[in-house]
Amino acid sequence: MSYAAQMLDACRRTFNVDAGLLAATIDTLNDCTQACDADTGCDLSEQTVSELVRCIRLCQDCADVCTATARVVSRQAEYDANVIEPLLEACAAVCKDCGDECQRHAQMHQHCRVCAEACRSCEHACRELLNAIK
């Protein structure tokens, strides 16, 4: 059981969204952050780094947005739609853009392939949680 799931189980509040879905989304957000941070480091070590500048920038943006989203959804027991919905929408959008860019380099760089997969998974998780809270 992930720490996110354990914390949600330990919380005495009633959540207005399925705790399993929430925990899975938090885990996916954290995985995407890690993949984007790692991919940035890998990109910077490539001889063709100049071809990866957009990928690096999107990975940095994606990691930052995923981190912020994970933090906000982790601490809210009742969601303020004015805060959480735009945040999840932004996260899904940056994950899509980053995943698309990483996919462009996936045949040449395995780290980009892994990052693209993490971004796709996170985009899906954000959209699923967004649909569940609407």
List keywords for this structure.
mainly alpha; elongated; Substrate Binding Domain Of Dnak, Chain:A, Domain 2; 78% helix; 5 helices
Short note summarizing the structure:
With 134 residues, the chain is mainly alpha-helical. It has helices at 3-10, 19-44, 53-75, 81-104, 110-133.
What does this structure look like?
The structure is a single chain. The chain has 134 residues and is mainly alpha-helical. It has a single domain (3-7, 20-133), classed as Up-down Bundle (Substrate Binding Domain Of Dnak, Chain:A, Domain 2), CATH 1.20.1270.360. It is built from five helices and no strands. The chain has helices at residues 3-10, 19-44, 53-75, 81-104, 110-133. Helix 1 runs antiparallel to helix 2, helix 2 (19-44) packs antiparallel against helix 5 and helix 3 (53-75) runs antiparallel to helix 4 (81-104). The radius of gyration is 15 Å and the shape is elongated.
Q: Biggest sheet, open or closed, and with what strands and sense?
A: none
Q: How do the SSEs run, as a string of H and E?
A: HHHHH
Uncertain runs are none
Helix content: over 70%
Which structural class fits the helix and strand makeup? mainly alpha
Q: What portion of residues belong to β-strands? A: under 5%
Gyration radius over CA: 15 Å
The number of E-state strands comes to 0
Average pLDDT score: 93
Please identify, by name, the CATH architecture.
Answer: Up-down Bundle
| CATH topology call | Substrate Binding Domain Of Dnak, Chain:A, Domain 2
Classified by CATH, the class is Mainly Alpha
Ends apart, CA distance between termini? 27 Å
Number of helices: 5
